[in-house]
Amino acid sequence: MALKMLGNMLRTTRTTSSLVVTRWKSSNTEKKLTVYDPYVTKPQKNKETYLEVIRMFEGHDIRRRGHVEFIYASLARMKEFGVEKDLEVYKALVDVLPKGKFIPTNIFQAEFLHYPKQQQCAVDLLEQMEDNNVMPDSEMEEMLMNIFGRRGIPLRKFWRMMYWMPKFKNLSPWYLPEQLPNDTMELAMLAIQRITSVDPDTKISIWQTEEIEASLDKTWIVSAQSRMQQVLLGEQPPDEPLTIKGPYSVYLRDQVVTYFTLLGKIRPEHKDDKDLDDVSNIEKPPGIPGFIGKTTLPAVKCTVHEQDNGTIVAVCATGTSSRDSLLSWIRLLEKYGNPVLSDIPVIFTLIAPPADIAIQETQPAVKDGRETTKS
């Protein structure tokens, strides 16, 4: 009798990391315990097989024993099957919970967290939906109400999600499609557009390093530069070197893109030694523009590209983020509208080699009969 009860207990054992169904395998001499994982046995990892495992669990036991462990295990397997952003799958997991049993019948059950294990499981499911930006709907509200009642904690969590998630869904001014492209070059274009949106005149160009014969790394370059940045680059003194800074990271949801900036001279710091408490020589107010007096503008007006650590004259992202691809980027900038780069040295200040490609030396450029190396 005790052995039979132990066998029944082991059949319903589950783990939170993976769904485990235990069975007794009988033989003539001994009994062995075998482990069966329906998620592992599925050859195709897609939505249909995931829902099939859920239906198998629902039909295995009408009392749904082990439903909490099953839901936790299924939540951990979502990314493997690619269904972590599918609302229908979350509804199917919520439907696994028994109906009506967890509804509190009096005020004491409602206040003292009736069936806390099941309520916490449902809250964790809703939190995973929130982390994956999956917005629930009215059908899920009805499901949670039928399972936990109007005073249940999961329903309160649902109401908070429905209040805040629509507010934050379209809050960002940089639009991203629901499904991000798999091509790294298209991701880089979206990232560069987001970075350079501060200047509407910015032009984004796609170049290939193969245009430069001396290039060693054959890849693509997404470069961004506006006409104002070309003017600022043209004002760069030849004796002050340009600096390539990076790599920096920008996140597009769960995707990360690295980019680099080309910095020029630092804008002059405005110094005002006037004593604000000195009233011996009060200047006449300049007046109101267009009405009284004469208003003069400052001699130098700083643009959005002139920052405290330097003037950003160009931004780029490359396919390999290697030193050779950045060197090709400088030569392509020189080729397309920035001839002043042939006279200005460029300094590479990369934090660490982001790629396995190591460039031993650069191709010398011949100018006026002398060989100079741009680094």
Reconstruct the topology from this structure:
Blueprint: H1 2-11, E1 21-26, E2 31-36, H2 38-41, H3 47-60, H4 67-76, H5 78-81, H6 87-94, H7 107-111, H8 116-131, H9 138-148, H10 153-169, H11 184-195, E3 203-208, E4 220-225, H12 227-234, E5 242-252, E6 255-263, E7 306-307, E8 310-318, H13 323-335, E9 346-350, E10 365-367, E11 370-372
Parallel strand pairs: 5-9
Antiparallel strand pairs: 1-2, 3-4, 4-8, 5-6, 6-8, 7-8, 10-11
Tell me the distance between the termini.
82 Å
What structural category arises from helix and sheet content? alpha+beta
Estimated share of beta-strand residues: 15-25%
What's the mean pLDDT score?
81
**Low-confidence segments:** 9-29, 293-299, 353-375
Instruction: Assign a percent range to the helix content.
Output: 25-40%
Q: What letter string, H or E per element, gives the SSE order?
A: HEEHHHHHHHHHHEEHEEEEHEEE
Largest sheet: 7 strands, mixed
Strand runs, count: 11
Question: Rough shape?
Answer: elongated
How many helices? The count is: 13
Radius of gyration: 32 Å
Summarize the structure.
The chain is α+β, with helices and mostly antiparallel strands and 375 residues long. It has helices at 2-11, 38-41, 47-60, 67-76, 78-81, 87-94, 107-111, 116-131, 138-148, 153-169, 184-195, 227-234, 323-335, and strands at 21-26, 31-36, 203-208, 220-225, 242-252, 255-263, 306-307, 310-318, 346-350, 365-367, 370-372. Strand 5 and strand 6 (255-263) form a beta hairpin.
Provide a descriptive summary of the structure in words.
This protein is of the alpha+beta class and 375 residues long. Helices cover 35% and strands 18% of the residues. The chain contains 13 helices and 11 strands. The strands form 3 sheets. Strands 3, 4, 5, 6, 7, 8 and 9 form a 7-stranded mixed sheet that branches. The chain has a two-stranded antiparallel sheet with strand order 1-2. A two-stranded antiparallel sheet has the order 10-11. Helix 4 packs parallel to helix 8 and helix 9 packs antiparallel against helix 10. The longest helix has 17 residues. The radius of gyration is 32 Å and the shape is elongated. The C terminus is likely disordered.
